[in-house]
């Protein structure tokens, strides 16, 4: 047994050495291709966009591709077909709403409210966004500024502009990042990002930084990396400019009777509060309801279909969702904000669901689309159009609608 183990271990080390050597050879070739693209093709594109040679050199002269980043397509290879999401916002809802994580962020959010009360009140007055919402986003994105943001933004953006699955998007973001440096908003060395190229504590992509970042502390820099005032005001400014309405609320948890189809979910199927009440969609709790804008339609939100809590939400919810384009994200922010204000959390529990590969969801979407269902964009993400199409298919074929994908459902739909 010991000899077998030693042989196996030696084989592993030999195999690892061979792989490492092959990777080194590949890396040299990729580095050369990257350098040629960056200093010829992209350099010309940057100059046409108004970026100076000096700014280009300051930001990119020492950058090499980071092949450890996710979602890359190595030159000469095809994208990985079957992969799980790197972002938690597209995982199983029960995993995303960890009670421990929610409790920690709510507790820390309350402490940050006490610490920054004065500046938060000024920001709330200027932008019309509740302090609790601003704090919830700050907490989710960077743990109130305590998460280390490890990457050189230009290394990430240039790598992805050269070899990611969304090269055109990242080339636009790389130009925007160069514009930040050229306009002296921040110097290149200070621009740290996530693995996806999102900047600073609010995690703005560079194009969003140019639109929404503000200098709230008046020091001449839009410093979302180390300035708490700039960070908080920039988050609130984002929400305001994307349509967040003061004193309109985001929504609340409701009971959805079996007579109301889960396929009534969606931002394109709004009804007035009185209409929802007639259908029997009523508050889950008898506690005092939050203030909401009753002059506007409300929308049914069921992020896990029948396998989790349901909500009636206002337009403000979709502004929160736009920060990360995920129903779970928008609901997480709303839930943490409610907790900071002392309100209770979910009443109905999140049930366990199949954790699917993106390719499996994409397969399901393609099947539904081929049968005439409007699933929105076939992207492997179970958005509300995909969820309600599932429910409509289930109803048509004599199944109890769940409005949520599963492996058994993928096998059933032919």
UniProtKB/TrEMBL annotation:
Task: Please tell me whether the keyword Membrane is annotated for this protein.
Answer: no
**Key words, A-Z:** Signal
Quote any Pfam family the record assigns: PG_binding_1
The Peptidoglycan binding-like domain extends over 359-402
> CDD domains recorded for this chain?
Slt35-like
Could you name the domain of life of the organism this protein comes from?
A: Bacteria
Is Signal there in the keyword field? yes
Extract one GO BP annotation from the record: peptidoglycan catabolic process
GO MF terms here are: peptidoglycan lytic transglycosylase activity
Family annotation (NCBIfam families):
MltB_2 (TIGR02283)
Q: What's the protein called, per UniProt?
A: Lytic murein transglycosylase
Q: Which organism is it from?
A: Bartonella choladocola
